[in-house]
Design a protein that fits this description.
The complex is a heterodimer of chains A (314) and B (269).
Chain A lengths: L1 H28 L4 H6 L5 H11 L5 H13 L13 H36 L4 H15 L2 H15 L15 H35 L2 H8 L4 H39 L4 H10 L3 H29 L7
Helix pairs in contact in A: 1-12, 5-6, 5-8, 5-10, 5-12, 6-8, 7-8, 7-10, 8-10, 9-10, 10-12, 11-12
Chain B lengths: L2 E12 L2 E13 L4 E6 L5 H9 L8 E8 L2 E2 L5 H5 L6 E4 L13 H5 L1 H6 L4 H14 L5 H4 L9 H13 L5 E5 L7 H18 L2 E6 L2 H5 L4 E6 L2 E7 H6 L4 H5 L18
Parallel strand pairs in B: 3-8, 3-9, 6-7, 7-8
Antiparallel strand pairs in B: 1-2, 1-4, 4-5, 9-10
Helix pairs in contact in B: 5-7
Classes of the chains: A mainly alpha (314), B alpha/beta (269).
The structure holds adenosine-5'-diphosphate (ADP) and magnesium ion.
Adenosine-5'-diphosphate binds next to strand 2 and helix 1 of chain B.
Chain lengths: 314, 269
C-alpha cells in the first residue's frame, strides 16, 4: 500500500509538471504579441522592444518557463500584463466564485443522486423509479446553460427567489452569497445528477443479481439489510470513479453557467485574458483548473483502493 | 419427520405459458440424515434447494405443493417469517465458492453474519463462535483468516468459509448444492470429509446435491435421482449405485479414476 501510494504521488507530481509545461508552451507559441494589446497599435518599435525586455519575452522559452515555474512553486503567479497587478490578487475573487460554484455543484450532485439512485433501485419498477427514469431522461438531455437560463427565468424572474445578475459578495454575508450561488450550482448539477442516478441505480441492480447477495439472503437478511450491508459499498466503487471524472465536467460547466448568471468568475476572466493576450493570467487559470481536476482524480483513485480490497497493494 | 416435501412444483411463467422446472417432487429428510439429490445439469436440483431455503423470487416463480419443516408449512410463510429460518435452522452452501462471498467484506463478519441477524450476542462472543465454526469447517487458522478478504483465499478455502458461515448457528439442515463441482478433485475429497465430520459430530442433517452419483455415494445414505424436474429413481444409495433401474442413472456415475479417493466405504470403479 505504501509503495503504491508513493508511486501515485510521484505520478501526480509528474502530471502536474506536464500540465504546467503544456499551459506555458501552448500560450507562448500561439501567434499574437501581448505587447500590442498593452501598448496599442501606434506604439513605436523602441517602446515595444523595451516592454518585451521588461516582460522577459526576449529570453529563451525554457528560461522563461523555469522562472515562471519557480514563481508558481513559491506562490508567485506573476503580474498581469493588462491590469498591472499580481495575478494572484487579480484572480482571488474569481477563484472564490468559481470554486464555490463547483463545490456547491458537487455537493448537490452527491446529495441529489445518492438517495434517488438508491430509492430507484430499491423500488425498481415502482412509481418513484418510473417517474425518476423519465425525469432523468429529460434532465440528461438538457445542456447545463439551458438549465441555467430556465432556472434564471423560473426562480429569478418569476418566483423572484434571487435577483439574476446582482451577485452578492461573500463579504456581505456567506448566507446570501451561497443562496445566490445555489441556482447556478443547480444548473451545473442537474444533468450530472441525472447521469449519476442512472449509473448508481444500474450498479445497485447489477450487484443485487450477484451470487453473494443470494448468500446474504440465505443467512436471513432482508432486502434492505442486503442493500445497506452488502450492495452499497460494492455498487459505490464504479460510482466514485464516475464522480471523480465529473469534477472536470463541473469545472467546465461552472465556467459556462457563470456567464448565464452574471458571475464574474474564472470563465469571464479567462475569456477576457485570452482576448488581451494576458498570458500570465491565462496560464495561471489553466494550471489552476487542471490542478483541481488532477488532484480530484488522485483522491478518487485512493478512495477507490480503500473501497475495493482487491485493488489494494496494486 | 424434520423435512417433508410433497408434490413440489416449480414453474417459471413465460409468454408461451410456463416452464416447469420441478414436477411432483417429494422427499423426506429425518434428523441427522444425509440425503442425496443427483441429476444432470438443468434437472431442477438447485431450484428445489432454493425452494426449500425460500430463495426463489416470489413474483416471477410459481411454487406449489408442500414443504414442511418441523411441521411448519414453509410455503405459507411470509418473507419475514421465512427469514427466521434462513441461516438459523436451514442453511445452504452453493456451487460457486468464488462468487458467493461479498468481495468487499472481511471473512470474519461474513462468517458471523447469521449470528448478528438472529441473535443479540455481543461481538466478542460472536467472534468466538465464528472461530469455532471455522475450525469445524476445516479452517484452523481462523484468527488470521478473520481479517482477510475473499480474494486472498483459494476456492477450496472460500467454500470452507461458506460452510463455516452456514454452520455458525448449528442449523438442523445444511443444503450443499454441488459444493465441490467447481473445485479440483483432491479438494473435493477433503471437503466431503469435512461435511461427513460435521454430520457425525454435530448431527446436522445434510441434503447433498451433485451431478455425480459417485460423489453422492461417498456421503449419503439415501438418494433421489432427478431428470428434467422429475424424480425417476430413489432409494438406498448402494442399491441405486449397484443396480440402477435407469440408463440415465447409470450415466450419472462419472468414470473418474480419482473417485476411489472419495472414501466410499468399499472399493469400486
Ligand atoms: N429464472 C429462470 N427462468 C426460467 N427458467 C429457469 C430459471 N432458472 C432456472 N431455470 C431452468 O430451470 C431448470 C432447472 O434449473 P436448476 O435447478 O438450476 O438445474 P440444476 O439441476 O442444474 O441445478 C433449468 O432447465 C433451467 O434452465
Ligand atoms: Mg444447480
Amino acid at each position: 500500500m505504501m509503495k503504491t501510494l508513493v508511486k501515485r504521488v510521484l505520478l501526480l507530481i509528474a502530471t502536474l509538471l506536464l500540465v504546467t509545461i503544456l499551459a506555458f508552451v501552448a500560450f507562448s507559441i500561439i501567434p499574437g504579441d501581448p505587447t500590442s494589446s498593452i501598448l496599442g497599435v501606434e506604439a513605436t518599435p523602441e517602446q515595444i522592444a523595451a516592454l518585451r525586455d521588461r516582460l522577459g519575452l526576449n529570453l529563451p522559452i525554457w528560461q522563461r518557463y523555469l522562472h515562471w515555474l519557480g514563481g508558481l512553486l513559491t506562490g508567485d503567479l506573476g503580474e498581469s500584463y493588462n491590469y498591472g497587478m499580481p495575478v494572484a490578487q487579480l484572480l482571488a475573487t474569481c477563484v472564490t466564485h468559481t470554486l464555490t460554484l463547483a463545490v456547491l455543484a458537487f455537493v448537490l450532485i452527491v446529495a441529489i443522486s445518492l438517495p434517488l439512485g438508491i430509492i430507484a433501485a430499491r423500488y425498481e419498477g415502482g412509481v418513484v423509479d418510473r417517474v425518476l427514469t423519465i425525469l432523468n431522461q429529460i434532465t440528461m438531455s438538457v445542456p447545463n446553460f439551458v438549465a441555467g437560463i430556465l432556472l434564471v427565468y423560473v426562480f429569478g424572474l418569476v418566483l423572484r427567489l434571487f435577483q439574476p445578475g446582482a451577485i452578492v459578495s461573500p463579504q456581505t454575508g456567506w448566507g446570501p452569497y451561497l443562496w445566490y450561488m445555489l441556482f447556478p450550482a443547480l444548473a451545473v448539477a442537474l444533468p450530472r445528477s441525472a447521469m449519476t442516478v442512472k449509473m448508481l441505480r444500474g450498479a445497485i441492480l447489477s450487484e443485487l443479481g450477484q451470487d453473494y447477495i443470494r448468500t446474504a439472503y440465505s443467512k436471513g437478511n432482508s432486502k434492505s439489510s442486503a442493500l445497506w450491508r452488502h450492495v452499497l459499498r460494492n455498487a459505490m466503487i464504479p460510482v466514485v470513479t464516475f464522480l471523480a471524472m465529473t469534477v472536470a465536467d463541473i469545472m467546465a460547466g461552472s465556467i459556462v453557467v457563470e456567464q448565464v448568471f452574471g458571475i464574474p468568475g474564472l470563465g469571464k476572466m479567462l475569456v477576457t485574458s485570452i482576448g488581451n493576450r494576458d498570458y500570465p493570467v491565462v496560464q495561471a487559470i489553466v494550471v489552476l483548473i487542471a490542478t483541481v481536476v488532477v488532484v480530484c482524480n488522485f483522491a478518487a483513485d485512493l478512495l477507490y483502493r480503500v473501497m475495493d480490497p482487491r485493488l489494494r497493494g496494486r | 419427520m424434520m423435512l417433508q416435501i410433497e408434490h413440489l412444483n416449480i414453474a417459471f411463467p413465460n409468454p408461451k405459458g410456463h416452464f416447469e422446472a420441478v414436477k411432483d417432487f417429494s422427499l423426506h429428510v429425518e434428523e441427522g440424515q444425509v440425503i442425496g439429490i443427483v441429476g444432470e445439469s438443468g434437472s431442477g436440483k438447485s431450484m428445489t434447494a432454493h425452494a426449500i431455503m425460500g430463495l426463489l423470487d416470489r413474483k416471477s416463480v410459481k411454487v406449489s405443493g408442500s414443504i414442511r419443516f418441523e411441521g411448519v408449512e414453509l410455503l405459507d410463510l411470509t418473507r419475514t417469517q421465512m427469514r427466521s429460518y434462513q441461516g438459523k435452522d436451514l442453511s445452504i452452501i452453493f456451487q460457486e465458492p468464488m462468487t458467493s462471498l461479498n468481495p468487499t467484506m472481511k471473512i470474519g463478519p461474513q462468517v458471523e453474519e447469521a449470528l448478528r441477524i438472529h441473535t443479540k450476542m455481543p461481538p466478542k462472543e460472536r467472534k468466538q463462535r465464528a472461530l469455532e465454526a471455522m475450525a469445524l469447517a476445516g479452517l484452523p487458522n481462523g484468527e488470521q483468516l478473520y481479517h482477510q478478504y475473499p480474494h486472498q483465499l483459494s476456492g477450496g478455502m472460500r467454500q470452507r468459509v461458506m460452510i463455516a458461515a452456514a454452520l455458525v448457528l448449528r442449523p438442523k439442515l445444511l443444503i450443499a448444492d454441488e459444493p465441490t463441482t467447481a473445485l479440483d478433485v483432491t479438494i473435493q475429497a477433503q471437503i466431503l470429509d469435512t461435511l461427513r465430520e460435521i454430520n457425525r459430530k454435530e448431527g446436522i442433517a445434510i441434503l447433498f446435491i451433485s451431478h455425480d452419483l459417485g460423489v453422492i455415494r461417498a456421503l449419503c445414505h439415501h438418494v433421489v435421482v432427478m431428470q428434467q424436474g422429475e424424480i425417476v429413481e430413489a432409494g438406498d444409495v448402494e442399491q441405486v449405485f449397484h443396480h440402477p433401474q435407469q440408463g440415465y442413472t447409470q450415466r450419472l456415475i462419472a468414470s473418474r479414476p480419482t473417485r476411489t479417493k472419495l472414501k466410499a466405504g468399499g472399493s469400486h470403479g
